[in-house]
Amino acid sequence: MEFIKQLNDVQQAAVKATEGPVLIIAGAGSGKTKVLTFRVAYLLENGVKPENILAVTFTNKAAQEMKSRIASLTKELTQPFIGTFHGFAVSVLKKNSYPYPRFSIYDASDQSKLIKEALSELRISGSEYKPSLFKEIISRAKNELLEPSEYALSAKTSFEKKAAAQVYDLYQKKLSANQALDFDDLLMRIVELFRRNHPALEKHQDRFKYILVDEYQDTNTAQYELIRLLSQKHKNICVVGDIDQAIYGWRGADFRNILKFETDYPETKVFKLEQNYRSTKNILSAAQTIIEKNVLRKPKMLWTDKPGGEKLKIFVFEKASQEAAFVIDEVKRLLGLGFNLADCAVLYRTNAQSRAFEEACLGSGMPYKVVGAFRFYERKEIKDVLSYLKVIIQPKDILAWKRIINVPPRNLPKLSEVFWEKAQKEGVSGELTSVLKGPKKEAFLNFLRLVESLKDKSFSLKLSDLVKEIADKTGYLERLSGKSWEEQERIENINELISIAKQFDDHKSEAAEKFLDSVALIQDADTLSDDKNSLNLMTMHAVKGLEFKAVFVCGLEEGIFPHSRADSKEELEEERRLCYVALTRAKEKIYLSCVRQRNLFGSYNESIPSRFLLEMPAELVEVQGEVWDEDGISIQLD
DNA sequence: CTCTACAGTGTTTTT
DNA sequence: CACTGTAGAG
Ligand SMILES: Nc1ncnc2c1ncn2[C@@H]1O[C@H](COP(=O)(O)OP(=O)(O)OP(=O)(O)O)[C@@H](O)[C@H]1O
Q1: Is the CATH number 3.90.960.10 carried by domain A2-95+188-273?
Q2: pLDDT 10s digits, A615-635
Q3: With a 7 Å cutoff on the CB, does A352 touch strand B?
Q4: Predicted ipTM?
């Protein structure tokens, strides 16, 4: 138990307070995650069984890191359940065969398809009301644990809301017809399971006697309720968070959950960590200056005994390409000073901004990785191949059937609604030929035979071989055998998929299902490179929880950051918290940059510097170039 | 039936 | 500009 000496007094006390509810609130870089990790190790060393511990992290990546730290701290060989809310939900739901023994997990594009179907069936014009709008409304309702009927009760005020209630209802029916759950359902159903089935709840309460939750300020109602239910009996619940770092309000997270904690559990022990171990004094003061302008917060103490350090550097450029070129040059200079590429991070508000940096990297031979960009599993060829796997293990998934029935083309385009309705009701089988005409009958039977033969093989082949078989026997690879650079890349992607599938080869009959589930739960942050030799480019959201020696915060212009769509007071406060998060990632160096002309949509827009830039106290920053206002007049910071 | 070309449309952040 | 969806040619 020597390891605990690495912690300061308050941190140690927080680790040792293993029984009863514990709330750890603290600013950035004060060791919250570290305390949580040590707490798990401490529990294990004190004889708590691994299976009695549940630790919830914000990303899979953070879970991995926590697992490996714990492994190095304890002798215990089996790991507790450490994962995200969604990962936990999938594992519990599958074990309980709830709501179905097997279910597909639908991603954003699957959701859009179902919503579009619902819209056209309800004769709601998709051009007047955008599918994405309904997707957001439905997601919000689910995060609030509102079933369609409950949502309908509260949605009588406007035409839009009434329409949304109808769409939600139909969408949900479609999901269940496909025996599928969307992301939000994962949380909603696990709460439903525990509310309906007391023995199941009690079993899990007794199993997970010790519960720990990181980044608690960013939990939504469903997650909050899940934790409340699970911890009700033993009340050994430890949550850590920082309301100044709440940046997912737009997704239904509510930082009031952490403020409520003490009233929810009156016997709560509160620990406040006030020493920051990450950043220099200058960085910390700059971050404080920004966050102190928020009204919706509780002031917190945060200090460091690190040196003042360098001033933050502000750079002003004409165009984004120059901003990017500068950043890459500066990174190269840092390499000369002994920095690793992995010590640097380039942060921006919107994904679209990554482009300029990618081009600059490519142009100067700088290895880089865009965190969360073009997600591998969202590529067409990957989704196609995976859909074959889906219909094999979950034949009720009509959306998957629709995706592949004519991919590659086999004379079965745009089948009638009657066909799909019948398929939905009675399942996909030879019976369906009764609603097909002429040559399509034969084409369809051939297709069915193909899927059947793949299904037969799924029992004997290893998963990776099955995936390979799919790519071959369906003619998918053959079709791609072309010469274009693009097709070449697709072939490589499929091969990549085959090699990823290898990791599941030893799961035997469950391999395909496990594989599909894990694919569905992959997050942007998981693509963060471990590679010491590439520069990480990412959004300020994706950087949550990480730290780097040098951080470049780019695109500090009004309209970009804070974003133009954030206009309410609350949203602006969230932008400000995002800025606080970005700044507090840095250990030593911060570069802030903005450009005068931002190209949005292909045309140039004049921009003015972000308020966050202008608020920087003059004594903490060094300005290179002129900071101007909307009339082009240069202004002084104060 | 399939593919391509173009028009129209829309850009926050993501589990 | 980049993505989607549709109309017409092949
Ligand atoms: N007692 C300590 N002594 C030395 N270093 C510490 C101590 N506690 C934490 N640290 C270091 O401080 C840094 C920040 O820790 P950690 O990531 O756990 O903080 P956090 O509060 O979770 O941060 P954030 O909320 O900003 O993500 C890490 O590098 C960690 O190793």
Answers
A1: no
A2: 999 889 888 766 655 555 455
A3: yes
A4: 0.91
